[in-house]
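Project standup — Tuesday

K.O.: blocked on the structure for the chain from last sprint. Re-posting the sequence here as requested.
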Amino acid sequence: TALIGYTDDLTSPSNGATLQKYPETTLTGVKQSLFGTSFNIDLSASYSGNYRTDGQKGNLVDLKPAISLPLDAGGYFRFTPEAEVRETFWERNDDIPASDSDKRGSRSTYRLSANMTTSVFRDFTVSGKSIEKIRHEIKPELVYDYIPYFDQDDLPNFVDLVDEKNAVTAALTNTLMAKLKGKDGAISYVEILRFKLAESFDI
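H.V.: unblocked you, prediction finished:
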């Protein structure tokens, strides 16, 4: 995806210090098997040109490859550990005096997570004109996320900070899926409701 936008800070008499991102481009890969193994690999990348009249400005590139391993426990639940590395590269092109090392640089961070989930469902026969059945599915989920502390004092102020995290999130998702039958007999499925409750706990 590619975005070009303009931000206007209505609380300031001047918009010169407001950060503008144009263009802003994001590329998201499709999760796929790693060399035919049980491991999955996922990759996302982004680029933004950060501009403003007053203050630091420049180019920013973010790369986030991730590897996960889905494990099924006899069909009762699925456990998926994942490791993600984030590489950030920046280059300032403003006129603010700074050393060469402050004009360009990089940051390396990582995130570890684990997801455990299962689901139960029940089908209800409706026998309406277009709706044949409705499936109610309940999906409990437990997620652990860990991001260690990283020193980020030397970053330009147009680079988003990566917050330290050590938390467990419990979630419960309810979905209603309708099985539809068209006039020509074609079958289709439509999600008519998704309701999710989640709560995170710091460790």
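K.O.: great, moving the ticket to review. The longest strand covers residues 131-147. The chain has a mean pLDDT of 92.
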